[in-house]
Amino acid sequence: MVDLVNAALANPINRAILQRLPMLGLNDAWLVAGSVYQSYWNALAGRPPTEGIKDYDIFYFDDADLSYAAEDAAIQRARLVFADLDALIDLKNQARVHLWYRDRFGSDYPPVTSTAEAIGRFQIRCTCVGLRPKSDGSLELRAPYGLDELTRGDLVANANCPDQGGAAAKADSYRKRWPWLTIASLNQES
Hints:
Helix content is 38%, strand content 18%. By secondary structure, it is an alpha/beta fold. It has a 5-stranded mixed sheet with strand order 3-2-1-4-5. A two-stranded parallel sheet has the order 6-7. Helix 1 (4-10) packs across helix 3. The longest helix is centred in the middle third of the chain and has 14 residues, at 68-81. The chain starts with a helix and ends with a strand.
């Protein structure tokens, strides 16, 4: 059986991001979502590890400064640290998502208290995964709903996501890239 962490590390962009992530000096920083689970789906399907991955999301949590200027300073540091990678890297301070979410997505987003909490809010439950480097060189995996649905390819709506409006489109996008996935349920479930 393919291991999620090893599949994620087989993607050289993920590996580079995880090695360099501490250089950003960000609190509670994780590589999350697509680049992690999509590398895993690629491994399960026997495809190249980077195939079909649109971007690489990095979440961090800094509630000491909720200004966009502070987040933008972190984004600029990330651009420098990851400049040589051929990838779209999207860095977001999860402590401030509630400030802009309604304007962008049309629904409220209750504030979170950590990046780990934010990882549990993606629209599709099995996509709620993240990796972060630990001080001993190993990686910590966050998968609040486990890995069974991810391994089976079951796309189930996440009741903890504040906005379910795009779940069907998200599932369809995944199915176009990984046709073996199944839409188990797009109704909110726990």
